[in-house]
Structures are given as structure tokens and as C-alpha cells.
Design a protein that fits this description.
There is one protein chain. It contains 9 helices and 10 strands. The chain is of the alpha+beta class. It folds into 2 domains: 112 residues, Alpha-Beta Plaits (2-Layer Sandwich); 118 residues, Alpha-Beta Plaits. The strands form 2 sheets. It has a 5-stranded antiparallel sheet. The relative contact order is 0.21.
Length: 237
């Protein structure tokens, strides 16, 4: 199984409410209700950015508006999906209506690597964080460190672990990574019961003394892109 990760921005000049409404109520159902397309997807979810999180954005540097995640059997399944005549007829034109296609961040990952799994039904917000390895770190070393020592800081440090409902890592598949050396190497997802829980986690002395230092070992920290979303909207699955 593979996953398609796509970070989105709305079309310039489009109101945020119009973007959110079109993505959730028109674009998603357009895929779900077209059998020729839906049959290729095991699962499809939308992650809509929290309005309160937008205060971090600079006026001249808008952040992402959300992220699509789709689960498929294989890369062949994805290629079959986008080669369907209904995709060209319906989906590509609809994307033009509401997406800034030039700013999309798209890559493919392995099945999620679950580091913490609790009761995600208690979630009120989710962190989605794009990661890129730092110069001089090989893909193999990046993924090994992220899976092992870095993940353990969250899962095995009680002061950090107690705030997190769930933590999944999504590691980019090697064939896809060859498309763009400067692309992202993975997506971290963490679920929280509240904004206060997320803030409390990042304020923990143990987090501040350990996590950023460890990130410097293998992550290009200047390239990190993240946002906080509402609980995911399930379109298929």
C-alpha cells in the first residue's frame, strides 16, 4: 500500500470559506460519487487548517490551507486513477476552479508507521508537518534516525508522550524521492485532544531541551512546513 500526500493552497483571490466549502462539499464528493474514480482509492481524507493557526502566516507568505491524504494499493493504482477518462473530464477542470496548482506539494509515502496510537476519537486538532533531510544526510540515515531515536523522544519520554493521542510517520517511497532532490522526505502526523495539549507539549522543558537539538542532527529545520488542522474529514473509507 502507498499514500498520496498533497498540501494545498486555494486559488489566488478565492475566499477561504468558498475554498473550504468547494473542497469538502463539491470536490471530495465528485471523486467519491464517480465509481470509475472511487474504485481506485482505499481511503481519502481531507485535513482543513484551523482558522486560529493562520495567525502564524506572514502577510506576504500565505501558508497551506489543508492537506489531502489518499490511500491506494500501489503506484499502478494511482496511475490508473489519473488515467481514467473521468479524471480528465471532471477532476482536473475542477481543481482549476479552486486550487493554486503551482503551489501544490505532492509526494508518495509508505503505509503509515504508527509510533503512538491512542483514542483518536478524542481529537480536536491534528498537526501535519513536512520534513526534509538536511544536507549531507542520506535518505537511509534520515529515515533510520526518524523511525528510531527521534520517534523514541515522543513515545518514550513521559513528559512528552502524555500530551499526544497518536503519532504516525509517513516515509516517502524511494522511487518517488528520485523525482526531486529538494522535495520533502516525509510527513509527521500527531493528534491532540486540544490546542492546550499541543501547547503544553511544546512548552515541556524536556521537549525544548531534546527535540530541537535532535532535529538539527538530520532535518533541514528551515525547510519544515507545518499546520494545525481540524479532525480529518473522511471522504472515502
Amino acid at each position: 500500500m502507498i499514500k498520496l500526500v498533497c498540501f494545498l493552497r486555494r486559488k489566488p483571490g478565492m475566499a477561504l470559506d468558498d475554498f473550504r466549502r468547494h473542497w469538502r462539499d463539491s470536490h471530495g464528493p465528485l471523486i467519491a460519487n464517480t465509481p470509475e474514480l472511487a474504485r481506485h482509492l482505499l481511503r481519502y481524507e481531507q485535513n482543513h487548517r484551523l482558522e486560529a493557526d493562520r495567525a502564524r502566516d506572514a502577510a506576504d507568505a500565505p501558508g497551506f490551507d489543508g492537506a489531502t491524504i489518499q490511500w491506494l494499493d500501489s503506484m499502478d493504482s494511482f496511475l490508473a486513477f489519473v488515467r481514467e477518462p473521468k479524471y480528465a473530464e471532471l477532476i482536473a477542470p475542477d481543481e482549476q476552479r479552486f486550487l493554486d496548482r503551482g503551489s501544490l506539494v505532492v509526494f508518495f509515502t509508505e503505509e503509515e508507521d504508527v509510533k503512538i496510537e491512542g483514542d483518536r476519537s478524542q481529537t480536536t486538532l491534528k498537526l501535519l508537518c513536512l520534513l526534509r533531510r538536511r544536507d549531507g544526510v542520506s535518505p537511509g540515515d534520515f529515515h533510520a534516525h526518524w523511525r528510531g531515536p527521534h520517534a523514541a523522544l515522543f513515545s518514550e519520554t513521559p513528559e512528552i508522550r502524555r500530551h499526544i493521542l497518536a503519532y504516525h510517520q509517513n516515509h516517502r517511497v524511494d522511487p518517488d524521492a528520485k523525482r526531486d532532490r529538494d522535495g520533502y522526505d516525509g510527513l509527521a502526523e500527531q493528534w491532540y485532544a486540544s490546542a492546550e495539549a499541543f501547547a503544553a507539549m511544546t512548552a515541556e522543558p524536556r521537549y525544548r531541551e531534546a527535540v530541537p537539538v535532535d532535529e538539527e542532527r538530520f532535518i533541514d529545520r528551515a525547510a519544515i512546513r507545518w499546520f494545525l488542522s481540524e479532525p480529518p474529514v473522511t471522504i472515502i473509507g
